[in-house]
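Appendix B. Chain record.
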Amino acid sequence: MTAVVCALLAAVTFGGMSVAVRRGLGAGGAATSTLATLLPAFVIAAAASTIRHDYAGAWKFFLAGLIAPGLSQVIFTRAIQEAGAARVSVVAGTAPFAAVIVALVFLHEPFRAPVIIGGVVIVLGGLLLAAEKGRPGHVKTIGLFLGVLATTLFAVRDNLVRAIHAGASPETASVAILFAGVLVSSLWARQVPTRIELRRMAPAGILFGLSYLALFEAYFHGRVEIVSPLTATESLWAVWFTSIFLGKSEHVGRRVLIGALFVVAGGVLIGVYR
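Structure tokens predicted for this chain:
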């Protein structure tokens, strides 16, 4: 039951984080906005790690964190800036399929038909999004491309974490990964976020920190075939939150919703059978 609750919490908070990033973005750059997001996320994880920690294997998660959220989160934030939260979140929902491709090519995981079917369903969802007619003016193709790039980095990170997750506590994994994210985004930004940026991005940072803690708690204490399908619903949560909090500014239509449903369905298939 703990794994189920944590997996759902991870999906809800990550979906909410995407919307909070969109609301918080101002005139500042993606790098400083990302740093302003990761700082409170790291503080939350660090506070949790004081209660329960095992720092012996933390360095492995730190290395994984250099990839995501290190490199990925700045790209993900820029993607939201260029294409909006809903559509980028649907793209991010394809991460399970990207993780499978990486695992098949580089880790030589066995071929499973249901996993490939899930991948095809995800691709169909992505095609629905790519072929969207009457796309709002604020949705730029470069934003969707950056979303794909960030998702690929998520997938690489996910495969690394699957291989090393037995080496530390969930809290330690979270704090190590987020510390790496803070370090990379600091080097990228080359400046400290302003107080306004910190205040605007604080909700996104809090949700991001909670999502990582919940995600690792779920994976460390639950079976992958249970956790993965639940976390795959993050795209639907993001689309729903977008329609509530961003209203008509994002123009979430039927095609985006159907695309999100396809992506989630494919992610569930992959999570169950991988």
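Further analysis of this model is presented in Appendix C.
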